[in-house]
Amino acid sequence: MHNAIHFLDRHGYAVLFLFALADQIGLPIPALPVLMAMGVLARDGRFSLPLAVATATAAALASDLFWYELGRRRGRAVLQLLCRISLEPDSCVRRAETLFSSTGGGALLVAKFLPGLSAMATPLAGIMRMRRWRFVLVDGAGAVLWSGALLGVGYLFHRELERIAEPALRLGGRLVVLLAAGLAAYIAGKWIQRERFIRRLRVARIAPEDLLARMQAGEDVVVVDLRHSIDYDGDGEKLPGAIHMSLEELDLGHEQIPRDRDVILYCT
Asked: Looking at CB atoms within 10 Å, which of 69, 71, 173, 229 has the fewest?
């Protein structure tokens, strides 16, 4: 652990940039401890706090521009990919779409503070054709807030963090093993939760081809289109005869749904 701090002391800006870039691009490499550690070292006069903020902001913005351009060029396929690898498949896209549609680009200011939202918000901005200059401006401001807040915690509470770090330094490599085991247990729990969710979903699922065959055969089925307004308005394809309402409106508008026939819910 002492070697890690010594390495950070010698290569702080480069390490900060790489960790912030990896964190924001979606790799399981948390930048939070490095940002706070850099804040502590800046308080001791070893690094410049404004330069550290600029370094982390540049890394985050580079990552976000990558996802923005990917969303702009590949559309919803990017969100579908992110949702498939997400540990919370039931809410990963919906939460981002709801916040983005209600706040517009303002969601980018707070996205990095909300787990799971940052990965969705940046490609969503590209999908919605947010102007590139506006994306850079708003997302850059969000990156400054994110990096400044975490570096600021280390800078302002350096004594408290140093006291917390002392037992960690004594543990040395054992602490790394404990943290790795905790992370592995968390991921395993989320993976089991995800598999259970998908298994339940398969039981009550109908393929689009099966639904089309039933409709063409004249079966009287009710289709409720639960797609978010971003998907519904942006997608040229509409389901004929479907009742459109958002998932949030379902509790209030369920009286519109007939109860004397099969009801099929459609969402992305």
From this structure: 173
